[in-house]
Design a protein that fits this description.
The structure holds three protein chains of three kinds. Chain A is built from 18 helices and 20 strands. By secondary structure, chain A is of the alpha/beta class. In chain A, helix 4 crosses helix 5 and helix 14 crosses helix 15. Helix content of chain B is 74%, strand content 0%. Classes of the chains: A alpha/beta, B mainly alpha, C mainly alpha.
Chain lengths: 516, 328, 328
């Protein structure tokens, strides 16, 4: 490399309490380059972006722009330094019209208009309030607003997400030309197709560290995946659990039967059964309607159509307490949603006991203590710090949310990504626990963002794409490439280019018997 | 045109309501004339400024519970300073009191930004503090006001070239109100600062990411609120000629008028015109109740009930406005 | 501290102190109380005697019960500013109805407005989701209006303080205030409710994380409605006790207790954000404030200064608790 980098960040670290979001991240972007920033969920991409754009302050590290040390203390300072981000959620003020939004950020109007046209929106009314503009258009406007001030470094976070194909194409084209005209772009994306078409180099983060910088050349995908997954790549292929043990239960009446379920625009048509003693996995890309599915089954939101049957009886949930009465419990992915953080482990587990009006009286301390203690023992919760749940580790917190429903003896548990952000040991315990529950004839619906978990835990897998069930796999066939392909909405048995997952032979965790 | 109605429809409806009430008043009391209108405007003055104070903060996504206490403090300060002083001395008192409101308001904002205690708690605490300070300044209602100040809201402003019959409907108090509000509001609305105030109320995150100095803007919003409240306090002293250390019912009234005026309690929406018209509506309702010979205490109850109903309605709208799934 | 086991890195002394304060808020509170008493004794040697003690307890009790209302509502992230009005209404109705009615009937009549206001508060906050501060302020204004109307209807018949309330409010038995006969069971009941009943647990859960409570099947509006009714009932009872102590029914009888009741709960370690706190701390908080008031009276601090001090206490204690909670 002969040219000096336009942006050079080294040794960037950021801790949240005891949790290290970034340990040692570095990123170096050359003039005129489109640079991909990659990493699995939780690798620290968004933290790094937030640091570079002044939204948060790093605990350590150094950021050079054009060779000068810059202390970017606010988004305004980042702007002045020539660094402009376009976030996943548009940062236009919802209650102001577009023109006011431009004035607020000091964006020149004419270049903005030109860019908007260029990006494929010919008829924008600058007097429209941002709130009334569709999300996809809003993202494009956000990009146009950034382009209009001609930044040195443009930072695009999942820019093509939520964009229809025609807009996405224009956006990619414009981004490519930015690189050609000597400006730099940091491009964050999960889509290999875009990255290989667009980017010159890629920086890969894993667990808060930069683990590699690679040139984008044909065939580099495998290398990137290897870097992203790290140790996981060499894991021994775990044996798919035999589905035989679930087959016996399939004959009886299903515990939960969902038909043509719809929720607003997010969930269009979902039908499936959940048998007693069965763990059914749900696999979907972000935002395909899985959140709505779980919320509807848990009674948090009302479906706009379709039916839910529990043990053959039609039900209409208007409040989570209805679902709980039907024996359906919901464990949300975000633990802060489920726990009263300042209260004790005991109280958190016993919370559902007091929920009903007739249970408001004196608590039967002894009985309750026995039930709670057995749930704690069952999940092996580390109770040294049980005074307040917020002092527990993430894994133990997650255990508390599950223990609550074991103590309450729920017959069906809806687990939404229960292993997100917790340590490996606890993950294993949770897998084991879910299988044990199935063994006790309870049923579990299990959404996971980590595809490898599916074969460890589930009997069947349903794949949701665009708010619809696109496929249902028996566990033997649910290996990662097959799931990934289905999650992108591609039919089974057809090989279509989906980034690196397209070619089964290139995937490291490919199993011989699971070829489509 | 449609956009105008969408944005201003609420205010237009309110104004229609006001006209309707006015016609009603005429029906109840055929003799209701310009003089009565003048006293209505005088009664509205402190409420209007209280509402203006509340509006700025609510648009910025906050709430100011100390409005009424701030008015009491500024009112007693002005009244006790002018007590026994010369007429000219009041020329110094007015800017002093306004500056005091501005500074104390800014202090509210600074406390919120620095302590990160929610606005509702901070302003509750300052409510107590300002109340206490008002009691320290004047233990009981008293003090005085300069005659020219008192005169400045009585009678009408003769406008050359306008027939007396119309001129009679332009009370000085209304002119004062309009001038004071416009002098601050119109430049603000057009400035980047005004945009920033709307921005932090609409979405703090988006505002922050758009490079808006969120903390500074919030402090300024509270400072402006203090300034308006000080104006309200001054009008209290002007209309009564004294200062009273016990805050009037301006807090709830201001919140109710803000909600009725189409300013969302979440922030970011609405303007100043709506709440001001809403104040006139609420005051006129009171006038009508009085004209209907209803016991003033009952009037107070009805008025209170209307305000609570309005606030409940506003809160209800806010819940309904949330997207599905965000329902707590 | 067993919890330090989860923190492998050494914990600094400052953090240890903070954590200790968060875990055992009673100890520093009692120390503060003792210090205040000692200062009092130094300023006025001999003042701290049996009579002073009984007197202090007598005046602390109504405050402590009202602070109980604040404690319970604050646990859910709310506040009840209508307690002053409710207490006044109950007291006033009791004093005027006892003239012509059977004591039991008078008592029931006196409790009616309490139940009604509590119900309206609860529905407003729980169903319509009005901010508790605004809601209770509104109902308190309406209540005051109603009381004024009511006062006119009974102005001819006069008022008297029932002997029983007199005995309860001011009487001493073996040097102990009779009010303790009411307060001790009441306090035990509140503490028991908060610690050992399903309802108490829900108050904490709802205040800590409403969404989590909802996901556990808790219906928010039920909890909140019941809570505000209970709070109002307690306020009503306080009114009866207080009139026996003050012996002069007025339309603003218990109003001066509202601010100290909030302050007492905050000092007692109950978080105004909900989910944290308890009643024992509040009782000590009420004692501290009562002693502090005596101290300020001896120092000849005017009422205004006292309000300022209380307001500052609320602000700084809240900010301090926020720091403690954040630093984990």
């Amino acid at each position: 490399m002969t040219t000096n980098p336009l942006l050079d960040a080294t040794g960037v670290a950021k801790n949240y309490g005891a949790v290290a979001a970034l340990r040692n991240a570095s990123l170096s972007v050359l003039p005129g380059e489109v640079h991909a920033l990659m990493g699995a969920n939780g690798a620290g991409k968004s933290t790094l972006v937030n640091i570079l754009t002044g939204a948060i302050h790093a605990d350590a590290g150094r950021v050079l722009i054009r060779g000068e040390t810059r202390d970017i203390r606010s988004p305004a300072a980042a702007r002045r330094a020539g660094l402009l981000p376009v976030y996943q959620e548009p940062s236009l003020i919802p209650d102001l019209d577009v023109l006011s939004n431009l004035r607020l950020t000091g964006t020149p109007v004419e270049p903005f208009r030109a860019w908007v046209r260029e990006l494929g929106i010919p008829d924008l009314d600058l007097r429209d309030t941002a709130r009334d503009i569709p999300l996809a258009v809003l993202r494009v406007l956000d990009l146009a607003r950034a382009l209009a001030v001609e930044p040195d470094v443009l930072l695009l976070d999942e820019m093509t997400a939520a964009l229809p194909a025609n807009l996405a194409e224009k956006v990619l084209e414009v981004v490519r030309r930015q690189g050609d005209s000597g400006r730099s772009v940091i491009f964050i994306s999960h889509r290999f197709v875009e990255i290989s078409a667009l980017c010159d180099r890629a920086t890969v983060l894993r667990d808060g560290e930069t683990v590699g910088v690679v040139d984008i050349v044909p065939g580099v995908e495998e290398k990137i995946v290897e870097l992203m997954l790290g140790a996981r790549i060499v894991k021994t292929q775990m044996t798919a659990r035999p589905a035989g043990q679930a087959a016996s239960t399939a004959a009886s009446r299903p515990r939960l039967s969902v038909r043509n379920l719809r929720v607003g625009t997010k969930l269009n048509d979902v039908s499936f059964d959940l048998a007693n003693g069965e763990v059914v996995g749900v696999v979907a890309l972000e935002g395909q309607g899985q959140d709505e599915l779980f919320a509807a089954l848990a009674g948090s939101i009302r479906p706009s159509g379709g039916t839910i049957e529990v043990d053959g009886q039609g039900v209409k949930f208007t409040h989570p307490s209805d679902a709980i009465r039907a024996g359906i419990a919901y464990v949300p992915g975000d633990r802060t949603e489920a726990l009263a953080m300042q209260r004790s482990v005991h109280e958190n587990i016993a919370l559902p006991f007091s929920a009903a009006l007739r249970k408001w009286g004196p608590i039967r301390v002894h009985k309750e203590r026995t039930v709670v203690a057995s749930a704690i023992a069952r999940l092996q919760i580390d109770t040294r710090a049980q005074g307040e749940v917020q002092r527990l580790s993430g894994g133990n917190q997650q255990k508390v949310t599950i223990a609550r429903w074991i103590a309450a003896n729920a017959r069906t548990i809806l687990c939404f990504d229960p292993t997100r952000g917790i340590d490996v040991g606890t993950k294993q315990e949770i897998y084991k626990l879910l299988r044990e529950l199935a063994g006790l004839d309870k049923s579990v619906l299990f959404y996971t963002s980590e595809l490898e978990e599916v074969q460890r835990v589930c009997d069947r897998v349903i794949v949701i794409f665009g708010g619809q069930v696109v496929d249902i796999f028996p566990v033997e066939e649910a290996d990662e490439p097959a799931l990934m392909r289905a999650a992108y909405g591609l039919p089974r048995g057809v090989t279509v280019d989906v980034g690196i997952m397209a070619d089964p032979t290139s995937h490291p965790s490919q199993t011989p018997e699971a070829a489509p | 045109m449609t956009r105008f109605f969408r944005n201003q429809g609420w205010v237009a409806g309110l104004f229609a309501l006001f006209v309707l009430l006015f016609v009603l008043t005429k029906l109840i009391q055929p003799g209701y004339g310009s003089g009565d209108f003048g006293s209505l405007v005088r009664a509205v003055l402190p409420y209007a400024f209280a509402v203006a104070a509340q509006t700025v903060v609510v648009i910025a996504g906050g709430i100011d519970l100390s409005v009424a206490a701030m008015m009491a403090l500024t009112s007693v300060t002005a009244a006790s300073m002018m007590n026994g002083a010369s007429e000219e001395y009041a020329l110094f008192v007015v800017p002093f009191v306004l500056a005091m409101g501005l500074v104390l308001g800014a202090l509210n904002g600074i406390l919120i930004v620095v302590t990160r205690v929610p606005d509702i708690v901070v302003t509750l605490a300052t409510l107590f503090v300002l109340q206490g300070a008002a009691l320290l300044v004047l233990g009981a209602p008293g003090g005085a006001a300069a005659d020219w100040l008192k005169a400045s809201i009585v009678g009408t402003l003769p406008i050359p070239g306008l027939p007396d019959s119309i001129d009679a409907w332009v009370p000085k108090a209304l002119v004062l109100l309009v001038v004071c509000l416009c002098i601050i509001w119109i430049p603000l609305r057009r400035s980047k600062l005004g945009l920033s105030i709307y921005a932090i109320g609409s979405s703090e995150l988006a505002a922050f990411r758009s490079g808006v100095p969120v903390a500074r803007t919030r402090i300024i919003a509270y400072a402006l609120s203090g300034l308006f409240a000080a104006m309200g306090g001054l009008t209290l002293t002007m209309s009564t000629g004294i200062g009273a250390p016990i805050p009037g019912p301006y807090l709830l009234a201001s919140v109710a008028a803000v909600v009725l005026g189409g300013v969302a309690l979440g922030g970011g929406k609405g303007g100043l015109l709506g709440p001001i018209v809403a104040v006139f509506v609420l005051r006129l309702v009171r006038t009508d109740l009085t004209l209907l010979a209803i016991d003033p205490n009952v009037t107070a109850i009805i008025e209170g009930a209307i305000m609570v109903a309005v606030v409940m309605f506003g809160a209800f709208i806010t819940i309904r406005g949330r997207p599905a799934g965000a329902m707590p | 501290m067993s919890s330090s086991a989860t923190m492998p890195q050494p914990v600094s002394l400052g953090r240890r102190v903070k954590r200790f304060m968060a875990d055992r808020p009673l100890v520093p509170l009692i120390i503060l109380l003792v210090i205040l008493v000692v200062i009092l004794q130094i300023l006025r040697p001999g003042i701290v005697n049996e009579r002073w003690l009984a007197n202090t307890v007598k005046f602390a009790i109504p405050l402590a019960i009202l602070a109980g209302c604040q404690t319970m509502t604050m646990l859910t992230g709310g506040i009840d500013l209508s307690v002053g009005t409710v207490a006044t209404m109950s007291a006033f109705i009791m004093a005027t109805q006892i003239v012509s009615q059977d004591p039991a009937v008078a008592f029931l009549l006196a409790m009616m407005p309490a139940i009604l206001i509590g119900l309206i508060n609860g529905i407003g906050v729980g169903v319509f989701r009005v901010h508790p501060l605004i809601m209770t302020l509104g109902t308190s204004l309406i209540g005051t209006g109603c009381l004024q109307v009511y006062q006119r209807t009974v102005i001819a018949s006069g008022a008297k303080i029932p002997d029983f309330l007199n005995w309860l409010g001011t009487g001493l038995t073996y040097g102990f205030p009779n009010a303790l006969l009411l307060f001790v069971p009441l306090a035990v009941l509140i503490v028991f409710t908060l610690r050992r009943t399903g309802f108490g647990r829900l108050l904490y859960a709802v205040g800590d994380n409403e969404r989590a409570a909802r996901l556990s099947g808790v219906r928010y509006w039920q909890v909140i409605t019941a809570l505000y009714v209970i709070s109002s009932l307690l306020a009503g009872i306080t009114g009866l006790l207080y009139i026996g102590l003050i012996k002069a029914p007025s339309l603003s009888l218990a109003e001066p207790l509202v601010l100290p009741s909030v302050a007492a709960a905050v000092i007692g370690g109950t978080s105004i954000f909900g989910g944290r706190g308890g009643y024992t701390g509040t009782i000590i908080g009420a004692l501290i404030l009562t002693v502090l008031t005596t101290l300020l009276t001896i120092l000849q601090m005017p009422e205004g200064a006292r309000r300022i001090l209380f307001g500052l206490i609320v602000l700084f204690v809240t900010a301090a608790y926020l720091r403690i909670v954040e630093e984990r």
